[in-house]
Amino acid sequence: MSYSIMSVRSGSTKYLPLVLAALIVPALLQPCEKGDQDSSNELDFYSLFAMDIENDIIIMEKYRGKVSLVVNVASQCGYTEGHYKGLNYLQEAFKDTDKFTVLGFPCNQFGEQEPGTNEEIYSFVRNKMGSNFPMFAKINVLERDVPPTWQYIIGRSHKKPTWNFWKYLVDHTGHVLGAWGPDTRPEDLYDTIKAAIDNIDPEKARMKITRSEEL
């Protein structure tokens, strides 16, 4: 899908939120000057929209309050099996907290290793990889037609994906905590994710710090 004003001119209003977001995100990603508007009013990841793998608009606000691991996935990559296994592990490990989710975004820009349709990708992910985390429509993460969600995480992390399975950790307020390439296994991020989840509950985080200091 092309995130351009042509989507509106064609007569369809289904994609209007995405189009508007795509038009305003680049400006909003510009660093704030000292004395500018308070940072609490800045755009964040959960302020945006995305298309899921069934081509329905998803308001990312539904994930606010959770920690999200955003990943550009591919079905035919050397990292595919290991990464899906690791992503499934994280999704299951933190399931009972109800404060974490993996968000998968298929991309065919690296080695053309995600060539299938959204339907084929969905079947592969659910039936072969056994994954149950949310999947989104196939996108570009570089150059043209990058969706607002990925413009945001790339802009905030200052790290563009250079291959499949880049992982961006977004905290419960919608701000990017870090980014890791495919050489980092998903399960290696367990402690980082747990710390971000613990930080959702300030009292739990404070107690953890106190215990560490006592040790």
From TrEMBL:
Record-linked PROSITE patterns: GLUTATHIONE_PEROXID_1, GLUTATHIONE_PEROXID_2, GLUTATHIONE_PEROXID_3
Tree of life domain: Eukaryota
Signal peptide positions (record): 1-29
Molecular function GO labels: peroxidase activity
Keywords: Oxidoreductase, Peroxidase, Signal
GO biological process: response to oxidative stress
InterPro entries recorded: Glutathione_peroxidase (IPR000889), GPX_AS (IPR029759), GPX_CS (IPR029760), Thioredoxin-like_sf (IPR036249)
Pfam family, one: GSHPx
Similarity annotation: Belongs to the glutathione peroxidase family.
Protein name per UniProt: Glutathione peroxidase
